[in-house]
Amino acid sequence: MRVIIIGAGEVGYHIAKKLSDESQEVVLIDQDPAKVRRIGENLDVQAFLGSGTSPQMLRAAGIQEAELLAAATDRDEVNLIACLLARSLNPHIVKVARVKNREYLAEASLFSRDLLGVDLIINTNDMMVDTILGLMEVPGASEVIDFVGGEVKLVSFLITAESPLAGKRLTDLNAYGGNLLVGAIVRGHKILIPSGRDAIQPMDLVYLVMKRAEVNATLERLDIPTRPLKNVLIVGAGETGTAVAQALDRRRMKVKIIDQDGEKCKKLATVLNRSIVIRGDGADRDLLREEYAGDMDLLIAVTGDEESNVLISLLAKELGTRRTITRVSKPSYMHIVSAIGLDTVINPRMAAVRAILQHIRRGRILSVAPLREEEAEAIEAEALETSDIVNTPLSRVPFPPGAILGAIVRGDEIIIPRGDTVIRPRDRLIIFALQQVSKKIEELLTVKLEYF
Amino acid sequence: MNFRLIANLVAILVFSIGLSMTAPLLVALYYGDGGALALLLSLIATCSLGGAAFLGSRGQEDYTLSHRDGVVIVTLGWIAAGLVATLPYLLSGTLASFTDAYFECISGFTTTGASILTDVERLPKGILFWRAQTQWLGGMGIIVLSIAILPFLGVGGMQLYKAEIPSPVVDKLTPRISDTARTLWKIYILLTVAQIVLLLFGGLSWYDSVCHAFTTLPTGGFSTKNASVGHYHSAYVESIVVAFMFIAGINFSLHYKLIHGRRREFIRDPEFRAYLLVTGAFILIVVLDVCGGKVYPTVWEALRHATFSVVSLLTTTGFVTADFEAWPALSQQILLLCMFLGGMAGSTGGGIKIVRVVLLVKHCYLEILRIIHPHAVTVVKLGRMAVPQTIMRGIWGFFILYIAIFVLAALALAALGMDTMSSISGAATCLGNVGPGLGGIGPMDNFSGVPPAGKWIMIVCMLLGRLEIYTIIVLMIPDFWRK
Fold first, then answer.
1. CA distance B354 to chain A (A)
2. Is A452 a residue whose pLDDT tops 50?
């Protein structure tokens, strides 16, 4: 499949990387020579220097044969024009556009078949806001991923030495009730898809599957505080900071937001009703103390500078802030942040990549969530009647090593799979798989037994 | 400054005022109870004066006005309109002294409603109609009326409009200012007709209905009865008057929006909400203060009189149904506070205006917040809109000037021998264009007892209040007159 990506920014780069890792033909267009060079050097994609809104360029990139166009520049207008051009050059192409402007997003008819014909809108701001709100809903978690429309959650959290789970084998976890399901463990740089014999160690990041209604009760049993986060300090009034502040402001939470730019602060003060906007350096310890950062439930560091974000979060931790959420995009940093004690790291491209993957993966895969640096995935899929995993005891289903069936959702019920469990047609499956086996899982879910 | 053009436009205004005397003249001829001759003579004199001045200053092709020209025209226009309007009172012998007649006319045009006359029921109907009509013309603004009907003003109209209605939030309803002025007058006329019809249903005569509607919508408060609206002892009439006073206290741009189906904007308007809240809260306080046998035996009666008085004074109309001087001190002071607050900006009401008070309170709160959070960035907002610093400064200036003028006027009135309550409430009621005060000029008294110098102070206060201070004050600054 030929895919054209416009814009080699953070989002475009990672969509390109992910798709090329999945061995798709990727063509990338950007106007910045440095970015184009970087892509050409690092990824197995074809990078063009030019404008994504130039019909000539798009033809040169082979838009007539392409199946997918992802317009992922920072500018909405460029993305929308690119989609419009793509539509006229190739009426059958699937179009994915990154759009930020709320006014555009509110005009549903703009994206309809009649006008732009955008098949998928990616709004990284909204995704970041959803991620942060999801995290706030489960105060102890480092990551929260929704499945089955939010009814089932994949919650990850760091195991401390005092945790009742520390040192336990997965087979011993039945003492904590039937609904405790460890899908994946991140240990240092590695991600494990555990079997029953594996034991949980302190400093592991474990991924648990649980029902929405049981999240708090489960976490309390595991000695993870669930007191709601009410006082929030946001550092950085960029697009994400602004969007988060507005969302929290609407929910009547106590929000303070710090930024250095006077104009940004003024704009923000105009759109917020209850929140307090403070002009100053978020990495200034005195300012943080003056605003009682240590008494905050949550600090969200989302300035444009990732090094600052890490430092601000560390500073807040030192002052006593209960939790921190830090925006870090550089993959090279992702590994070390948990080692230096930052509980939660978010990054905008994960969400965007997730949305694109979901759209590209065919068959009965309902959603895909990349876990930790995309080395593993949590896949939500529907069990097809024709697939060879139904109506057979699980012990006889050929699950590849490196993949585990985390949970089966049947109606309202979450079933923990055992060797004798039988998957029925239309069950929702939540599968954890290392990236290298995710293709096999896809086949397993869709291909009939007779084919072999 | 283009003095020839200024004279020309003021002349047109005077001529139009003269023409408008046709209406009371017809009333006088219909009832035949006197005053017709005086009105006819006034009409002829005013029109000839205006006409002569117009011819004398003719020869203008260019009607481009500077902001300064606009300010002078508006101020002179109001002073001149008051002067010629005294003619019917003086010629008919209703009022003997020029001071009294001028007081009555300025009180009319500025929609204050403070009166020198003790027994209005005895006066010829034509003269009383003229008295009501001055308020009706002044309510929406005599200058706005000229902009609406004089097509040649063009851009100059905007300068006049801004000088007469210096609302803190400029709300141009239509692309062209003359259309905006015409739209406002249409709404005004529509509401007046509606009130006349509803009052007729209440059993009032045509004459009384028209006269009361003419003084309700401009939030004026002149009545054709000695006991004001209280004369009718009718809950229906009072509720109609309360409703229309309240409506007149709403920004007319909002009425425009409502007529054009933009109901959400109406309901969500932050100033309207504050207006509603203040009205409700004040009524509640007064009801609690006067019911339970303290003044009125039943809650119903307390509610009826409290609502009428609060709405009447808050919208700066000044109709009365009850002697609120017999009320406890708390209620009296609430009513005094009403005189300062006034209606919404862009309404026909006077006072400081709700929107200014809301913004000032918000600004104060944000200043306090800055003590708690020294690095906080604060923006004063009205609804979702940020209010620019320049406008906030203008509002603070207005507020300080308003209070300063009030204090000076109250001191001056006291120096002339008026008692404490009369001098304080007299200054407040005139500056706020309300009408009745407290003490010697209370709801059951009138202003005839005020010393002549005090009347002139009040006249200045009424004009300052109607033109929202800056327009007149700026004329007293020497820099204004320098090239």
1. 20
2. no
The fraction of chain A above a pLDDT of 90, given in percent, is 19
**Amino acid at site B427:** A
> Under an 8 A CB cutoff, do A269 and B375 touch?
no
Sign of the Cα torsion A21, A22, A25, A31 reads: negative
Q: Is A350 helix (H, G, I), strand (E, B) or coil?
A: helix
* Residue B360, helix vs strand vs coil: helix
A351 vs A131: CA distance, rounded Å? 8
pLDDT in tens, A408-442: 888 878 787 877 888 888 888 888 888 788 778 87
Place of tokens 């200043």: B367
**A451, pLDDT greater than 60:** no
Q: Per-residue pLDDT for B21 more than 50? A: yes
Q: Verify whether the Cβ–Cβ distance B386 to A268 is below 8 Å.
A: no
Per-residue pLDDT, averaged over A28-47, amounts to: 89
Beta-carbon pairs below 8 A across chains A and B: 38
B365: chain A residues, CB-CB within 8 Å: none
Predicted local confidence at residue A116, as pLDDT:
83
Contact of B177 with B157, CB cutoff 8 Å = yes
Q: Which of B368, B377, B378, B381 to mutate to test the interface with A (most CBs of A within 10 A)?
A: B377
Residue among A256, A270, A280 whose CB faces B381 most closely: A270
Mutate to test the interface with A, among B366, B367, B368, B375 (most CBs of A within 10 A): B375
For residue A87, pLDDT over 50 is answered with yes
What Å distances lie between residue A61 and A52, A96, B429, CA to CA? 10, 17, 78
Query: Which pTM was predicted?
Result: 0.82
Pairing relationship of beta strands A143-147 and A181-187 according to DSSP bridges:
unpaired
For chain A, how many residues are written? 452
Q: Which of A279, A287, A290 sits opposite B377 (nearest CB)?
A: A279
Is the pLDDT score of A363 beyond 70? no
- What pLDDT band is residue B388 in, cutting at 50, 70 and 90? confident
Worst-scoring range by mean pLDDT, A24-28, A401-405, B206-210? Answer: A401-405
Element (DSSP H or E) covering residue A141: none
CB contacts of A293 in chain B (<8 Å) are none
Q: A411's torsion region: left (phi>0), alpha (psi -120 to 50) or beta?
A: left
Angle (CA) A109 A113 A116, round 5°: 70
Q: Do A269 and B373 touch (CB under 8 A)?
A: no
What residues of chain B lie within 8 A of the CB of A270, using their CB? 379, 381, 384-386
Do residues B447 and B91 lie in contact, with contact meaning Cβ atoms separated by under 8 Å? no
pLDDT at position A450 is 44
Instruction: For residue range A257-290, list pLDDT tens digits in order.
Output: 999 998 999 999 999 988 999 999 988 889 998 8
* Chain B residues whose C-beta sits inside 8 Å of any chain A C-beta: 369, 373-379, 381, 384-386
CB A93 within 8 A of CB A68: yes
Residue of A nearest to B374 (CA): A278
Q: How many angstroms separate the CA atoms of B468 and B430, rounded?
A: 12
For residue range A48-67, list pLDDT tens digits in order.
999 989 999 999 999 999 98
Is residue B105 within 8 Å of residue B85, measured between CB atoms?
yes
Chain B environment of A262 (Cβ under 8 Å): 377
Chain B environment of A273 (Cβ under 8 Å): 381
Measure A276 CA to nearest chain B CA, in Å.
7
Would you state the pLDDT for residue A176?
Answer: 58
Cβ(A71)–Cβ(A52) under 8 Å?
A: yes
pLDDT tens-digit readout, A143-155: 888 887 778 888 8
Query: Least CA distance to A258: which residue of chain B?
Result: B376
Q: How far is CA A405 from the centre of its chain?
A: 20
